[in-house]
Design goal:
By secondary structure, the protein is α+β, with helices and mostly antiparallel strands. The chain folds into two domains: 4-232, no CATH class; 258-420, no CATH class. It contains ten helices and eight strands. A six-stranded antiparallel beta sheet has the order 1-2-3-4-5-6, sandwiched between helices. A two-stranded antiparallel ribbon has the order 7-8. Helix 5 (258-286) packs antiparallel against helix 6 (294-307) and helix 6 packs across helix 9 (370-384).
């Protein structure tokens, strides 16, 4: 799902970005994806696309081909991916890059386990599905009407989607593409973007719709070889919808919702961290090293820091989406006894009302090897209980930490006994 011509450049920028936001370069998985403990290419997959493929093959499911957008809507329905999640990109970061521009943007749709990419006039629908054990598996579905269409696995996507940007595992990333006044590199300058990124560097090469208040970003701006250095300056340009930006024929939504975009930014890196944790654990077990070793423990620390939004860039003002995504997203909540959920959005100070990722409920997190999950829960409790006094956790208030623990107690049944203790001592700001 990425243009190989620019992969190397993006990887380099991604390393620099991670260094900047976290104070140190995060480690990545360094063994081969074909190590016997991993066998990425050979183990049978159990992701949602593999399941749908089997249903299509034996007649339990059908896809309907539409003249305007091919199989897109039918694929979204079959994989339970909401149309409201649409984000629109006009940077050419795709294997179908030559077709993509501001008048014919690529659209992405997603839920907690699947991302679907569509280019109007493109030969395929692109799908990335999170396998609970193996990480992200990439598929394509040919845009030709047939009785029993099948998704085909495409490991060629790993040319971009296995890199420093994805922590050395098959994964996902969202790039903010910045314009530069150089014909040779017009699409080769940018940063991977997630909830840690400054808003002034976000969303280059993407449409952004909604009410962002005074937030300045680099979205909604043309990418052109004729650009000047002025074009990389952030602006507060607002789009309520995509109306008038391009011909809407073949598109399913009028929006590229800012809330959907921010949730997607968070989710892609969270997905990679979970995969890396599982792979490091399986490798340690296969090599007889045990799990209390620096590589595995650091993977747990990195996962928990991100899970708790430790380095999240605060919102300077309230934001509002326009597609209905926020309502769809929160409707999937697991509520505790007081009606609270980790899917409740804040959108005034930060992304989530309770700063702990909803991805803790994902199939991939639940499928972590038990020793790996135990390490993650141990680190999570150290932070939430206040035992870990590191200054980076000072932004987590005692009220937030108590609420997170109480929500998890009611909604996550595999918590270790430590989470049943009532201990909260707020870390001191230093």
């Amino acid at each position: 799902m990425c243009n190989r011509r620019i992969a190397t450049t993006f990887v380099g920028f991604a390393v620099l970005f991670v260094t900047a936001v976290s104070g140190q370069r995060q480690d990545v998985f360094v063994a081969s994806r074909n190590h016997p403990a991993i066998s990425y290419a050979n183990l049978e997959t159990t992701d949602r696309v593999a399941d749908l493929n089997q249903k299509l093959q034996d007649g339990r499911a059908r896809l309907t081909f539409d003249r305007a957008s091919g199989y897109l809507r039918s694929v979204l329905d079959a994989l339970a991916v909401p149309v409201e999640s649409q984000v629109a990109l006009f940077s050419q970061n795709s294997s179908q890059g030559p077709l993509i521009n501001m008048r014919n943007p690529r659209t992405l749709f997603f839920n907690d386990a699947v991302a679907v990419g569509y280019v109007r006039g493109g030969a395929v629908v692109e799908v990335a599905a999170e396998d609970p054990r193996q990480g992200v598996i990439f598929y394509s579905l040919e845009q030709k009407s047939g009785d029993r269409p099948q998704f085909k696995r495409d490991d060629n996507c790993l040319a971009c989607h296995l890199s420093w940007s994805t922590l050395g595992v098959p994964g996902l990333f969202l790039v903010s593409t910045l314009t530069v006044p150089d014909d040779k590199n017009a699409y080769a300058s940018g940063f991977t973007s997630d909830h840690r990124t400054a808003f002034s560097e976000r969303w280059g090469g993407l449409y952004v719709t909604g009410d962002l208040g005074a937030i300045r970003h680099v979205g909604n701006k043309p990418i052109s070889t004729a650009s000047t250095t002025e074009s990389v300056k952030p602006e507060a340009r607002q789009l309520e919808s995509l109306d008038g930006q391009f011909d809407s024929a073949g598109y399913l939504s009028r929006y590229s919702d800012v809330v959907a975009l921010m949730v997607l930014e968070h989710q892609v890196h969270m997905t990679n961290l979970i995969t890396r944790m599982g792979w490091e654990s399986r490798l340690a077990t296969a090599e007889g090293r045990g799990h209390d070793i620096p590589r595995v423990r650091q993977a747990a620390i990195d996962l928990v820091d991100y899970l708790l939004f430790v380095y999240e860039t605060p919102l300077p003002n309230r934001i509002r989406g326009t597609s209905g995504f926020a309502e769809k997203f929160t409707a999937m909540a697991r509520m505790d006894g007081r009606g609270r959920s980790l899917r409740q959005l804040d959108l005034e100070r930060r992304l989530m009302k309770y700063p702990c990722s909803y991805m803790i409920y994902s199939d991939a997190f639940n499928a972590l090897p038990e020793p790996a999950k135990a390490l993650v829960y141990e680190q999570l409790w150290q932070v939430l209980s206040g035992r870990d006094k590191d200054p980076r956790f000072s932004r987590l208030s005692a009220a937030d930490r108590q609420a997170i623990v109480e929500i998890l107690r009611d909604t996550k049944k595999d918590l270790p006994p430590s989470f049943r203790r009532v201990e909260y001592s707020a870390p001191t700001k230093q």
